[in-house]
Write a structure and sequence with these properties.
Strand order of the largest sheet: 1-3
Structural class: mainly alpha
Number of strands: 6
Oligomer: single chain
Shape: globular
Largest sheet: 2 strands, antiparallel
Order of helices and strands: HHEHHHHHHHEHEHEHEEHHHHHHH
Length: 532
């Protein structure tokens, strides 16, 4: 039986058979490497499985198809304890990432590692099997098409690993024998491999969006991520050109007019982008570049545990007397994290992103049976701390009509969009000390928001990070952004009263999970500095 290191999960949908046994048979309907990855149809089956694996990036506990169950707060650990938000007292496991008391045995940290290497294992299998001369391809370019997908997925997984853990093993094969002597590859060497994968993906993934389905990887998805990673690597010129390739493509534009199913209702173009069914091009959104398809109970969609982002940002207002669960207030949230005050105060009054459709600052009692009905609720410190009521983004509002008490946030999730591409371009220009062009890139985003245009004299990396918070709160993985720009410690200590006092210098990196260190007993690893 083929064996894999314990923290490299085996193939999705692909099983391997045990040999050397009198029970050996030749099953007719068995899914194994030998009878699946033999033709274009088989590769397409496994490729679809890869999309499903990526969809579970923030899978919570439960669910019918869970590959890596993370617990209640997998998304929140990349947001809280930084410069944009803090956790409430709802979930004690999340508090560890606010007061920086987590360690190498933490389940969230372990599961980030497991999820990433699960993708890498699957991607490597696809890449390597595609080289088999016996594969029956339907079209001449099928081989590079599937390898491009696999190399993007591998890059996407390694992106998380290098940001969070630093040096990690660069693995390109699925071992036929158990190994316990993996070597940690230097972080920036892994980053260069990520860049190679994304360059390949950008060359061979589809470019014509008219020929792909919503959520499918394209050349532009790879180029957007390439721009980000090149900013991390120090190759700022390539970060610039990759971003410009996306911006100059004929398929994308910033959304400046109302669109979608809610266009006739109160709102604005920015809020339209986060309405149900509006995330994709099919819904009229020309800004979307990579959207994870999370529609509830549809083929290729999610279940109630795939994503609980709504629980993170939407407060548990209904636990206050005089409130009931309502679509108006985002459905059933729990309020696990809340934005910091500086973010709320950073908008100009006319900034579209500051409108009542994008930030909910006021709450009115909505229970018709209450004597308080229709009156304004005064937000108290106690309710804020308990996650019951606080000003917050509306990006993740969701309430299924059939089940208003549902846990999940079963609408599609935007991972990359053009608004961020402009800000990645600005980052590349700032890193090249090209402030005029950086200012112009930032002002493309601010102009859409009807905000006062930035002046060159004020543009620097901190200004850009402020603008990213205004534009991308909840969408970007803020921990990645702060690590890439070298600002995690400085800004956390400046803006977060709780976490700023708790964080230590070495905690910019997470510790390697202890179970991984123990499993690699053939080659002893020291943990990241400060974690031994």
């Amino acid at each position: 039986m083929k064996k894999y290191m314990m923290w490299l999960p085996a193939m999705i949908l692909v099983l391997t058979a045990c040999g050397d046994s009198f029970l050996d048979e030749e099953p007719k309907n068995f899914l194994g490497l030998e009878n699946v990855l033999v033709d274009t149809k088989g590769f397409n089956t496994i490729n679809n499985g890869m999309y499903g694996y990526v969809r579970q990036e923030f899978q919570t506990w439960g669910g019918t198809n869970t590959l890596v169950g993370h617990g209640a707060c997998p998304y929140e650990v990349l947001q809280t304890g930084l410069d944009i938000c803090t956790s409430t007292i709802v979930d004690n496991s999340l508090a560890l990432f606010t007061n920086y008391s987590f360690n190498s045995s933490n389940a969230y940290i372990n599961n980030r590692w497991r999820w990433a290497y699960g993708i890498i294992s699957n991607a490597n299998t696809m890449i390597n099997k595609a080289e088999d001369a016996s594969v029956n391809w339907t079209n001449a370019d099928d081989k590079v098409y599937f390898q491009a997908h696999a190399r993007f997925f591998r890059a996407y997984a390694y992106r998380q690993l290098v940001y969070l853990f630093g040096d990690v093993p660069w693995v390109t094969v699925v071992e036929s024998q158990y190994r316990n002597d993996f070597v940690r590859t230097p972080r920036m060497e892994v980053v260069e491999h990520i860049i190679d994968d994304l360059e390949f993906a950008s060359k061979y993934l589809p470019a014509d969006l008219a020929k792909v389905k919503d959520g499918q990887l394209t050349k532009w998805t790879a180029l957007h991520l390439l721009s980000e990673i090149c900013n991390f690597s120090g190759n700022y010129k390539r970060a610039e050109t990759a971003a410009l390739e996306v911006i100059d493509a004929p398929y994308f534009s910033l959304m400046e007019a109302r669109f979608g199913a809610f266009a006739s209702k109160p709102g604005d173009p920015f809020s339209d982008m986060f309405k149900e069914d509006n995330h994709n091009r099919a819904g009229g959104n020309r800004e979307s570049i990579f959207v994870v398809q999370s529609g509830y109970s549809v083929t290729g969609g999610s279940d109630a545990s795939t994503d609980w982002t709504r629980r993170a940002w939407v407060p548990a207002y209904y636990s206050i007397g005089g409130f009931i669960i309502s679509d108006e207030y985002g459905g059933r949230g729990v309020g696990q994290i809340r934005p910091l005050q500086w973010w709320l105060d950073s908008y100009e009054s006319q900034d579209m992103r500051n409108s009542e459709y994008n930030i909910r600052r006021e709450w009115y009692y909505n229970d018709p049976a209450s004597a308080l009905f229709g009156t304004k609720h005064v937000i108290t410190e106690d309710n804020t701390l308990r996650g019951r009521c606080f000003p917050t983004t509306t990006k993740f509002d969701y309430m299924p009509a059939s089940d208003p008490t549902s846990n999940g946030n079963m609408k599609d999730k935007t991972r990359f969009r053009l608004g961020e591409t402009y800000l990645l371009l600005a980052e590349a220009y700032i890193n090249q000390n090209n402030i005029p062009d950086a200012t112009n890139a930032i002002n493309m985003v601010r102009n859409r928001a009807k905000a006062t245009l930035a002046d060159e004299a004020e543009v620097n990396m901190d200004y850009l990070l402020d603008e990213r918070a205004r534009e991308l709160l909840g969408e970007e993985m803020r921990r990645f952004t702060l690590i890439r720009t070298g600002k995690l410690l400085e800004r956390t200590r400046k803006y977060n009263e709780v976490s700023g006092l708790a964080i230590k210098d070495h905690q910019v990196l997470w510790p390697v999970p202890q179970v991984v260190i123990d499993a690699n007993w053939g080659l002893k690893w020291d943990n990241n500095p400060g974690w031994n």
